[in-house]
Amino acid sequence: MQIQLKFFASLREAVGTGSETLVLPAGVNTAGQVQELLRARGGVWADALAEGRALRIAVNQQMADPSTPVAEGGELAFFPPVTGG
User: How many CA atoms lie within 13 A of 24 on its CB side?
Assistant: First the structure.
């Protein structure tokens, strides 16, 4: 299954890219599992997507949580919490 990844704000700065196409291995089908897969890259990926870090996730432009499924051709976005004013 292939999905589109998007990274915003300070997270984009940390990982050095704003977007990427990713082919998921068998058994990876939730937002949380994708986050774990990216963390396993190590280095800046492990730091930026560390468990317990304040991050927001959106699947197909809808706020999501780690248990939200991802589907073929879908979009998964990671971003830091933001405040308005």
Answer: 25
Q: Is the pTM of this model over 0.70?
A: yes
Phi, psi of 68 (to 5 degrees): -65, 130
Q: Where are the domains of the chain?
A: 2-72
Say which CATH topology domain 2-72 has. Answer: Ubiquitin-like (UB roll) (3.10.20)
38, 49 Cβ separation under 8 angstroms: yes
Q: pLDDT tens digit string along 60-81? A: 999 999 999 999 999 999 998 8
Picking from 70, 69, 35, 68, the residue whose alpha carbon sits closest to that of residue 53 is 35
